[in-house]
Specification:
12 helices; 295 residues; zinc; 16% strand; 8-stranded parallel beta sheet; 12 strands; S-adenosylmethionine-homocysteine S-methyltransferase activity; globular; BHMT-like; HCY_dom_sf; metal-binding
């Protein structure tokens, strides 16, 4: 069965948020990827919590995983590969822990943008000063590992820049594992400032990108983004915003504006899969699953 066949798919929420709620310190530059080495059982438990809340997809703890980042922690290339593979294994273990309910569950191997590996907030700005070719070369080695690790789909997520999306289209071309690509946005533009219609057009014709959408953005920006995507492509559309709080100085500020009932509007606008990102908890996903459940 294809992930996007049938009724709307409920995605998970903020993996790092759940890990922090469980008492884990993620202040390291590797963020949740640090726990692949230090506390793998915590990652499995967080995945399990989202599955139990109603999510059908577990997104792996590899968003901020990179060979550069692991090397800075003294983890050599082969060991870094093993840790990335472990991320898929941990999500699979969580999936296997749950009784079958007649519905499939999937694993999405997360690949965050180049800016995430810098751990300085660049994923919310883009414009790194690298060419499309340089970005494609940087992404390819870890995509090699994630494609071979056994995930059902690659999640190329929180992409702030249409140029990086172009690089990812090049890097993913011809691979055996399908991918989705989601932009992080500000209003109707990418974080780098490109019109969202132009950004979706970059990936619309790629046979390897099977779905597009937005993530880690304000919930109030989602519906318009879905509408724009629907004017550009007939690919399935995903929407999984953050809580709506602001990320300032490595801290979240403000209040959550994530409302599960908003997801009804996202589906009406044409979304095929909905969920949450940073600061969205299993309780939020449970409410969202209830909100979008067919009558």
């Amino acid at each position: 069965m294809n992930l996007f066949d049938g009724p709307a798919v409920v995605l998970d929420g903020g993996l790092a948020t759940e890990l922090e709620r469980r008492g884990n310190d993620l202040s390291d530059a590797l963020w949740s990827a640090r726990l692949l080495a230090d506390a793998p059982d915590e990652i499995t438990a967080a995945h399990r919590a989202f599955f139990r809340a109603g999510a059908r997809v577990a997104t792996t703890a590899t968003y901020q995983a990179s060979f550069d980042g692991f090397a800075a922690r003294g983890i050599e290339h082969a060991a870094a590969e093993r840790l990335m593979r472990r991320a898929v294994e941990l999500a699979d273990a969580a999936r296997a822990d749950l009784p079958s309910d007649g519905k499939e569950r999937w694993i999405a191997a997360s690949a965050g943008p180049y800016g995430a590996a810098l751990a300085d907030g660049s994923e919310y700005r883009g414009r790194y000063g690298l060419s499309v070719a340089e970005l494609a070369e940087w992404h390819s080695p870890r995509l090699d590992v994630l494609c071979d690790a056994g995930a059902d789909v690659l999640a190329l997520e929180t992409v702030p820049d249409a140029d990086e999306a172009e690089a990812l289209v090049q890097a993913i071309a011809g691979r055996s594992v399908p991918a989705w690509l989601t932009y992080t946005i500000d209003g109707e533009r990418t974080r780098a400032g490109q019109p969202l219609a132009e950004a979706f057009a970059v990936v619309a014709e790629s046979p390897d990108i099977v779905a597009v959408g937005v993530n880690c953005c304000a919930p109030t920006d989602v519906e318009a983004a879905i509408t724009i995507a629907r004017t550009v492509t007939d690919k399935p559309v995903l929407a999984y915003p953050n809580s709506g709080e602001g990320w300032v100085g490595r801290h979240w500020t403000g209040r959550s504006t994530f409302d599960a009932d908003l997801a009804k509007g996202w589906l009406a606008a044409g979304a095929n899969a909905v969920g949450g990102c940073c600061r969205v908890t299993p309780d939020d996903i449970s409410r969202l699953a209830d909100a979008v459940r067919p009558d």
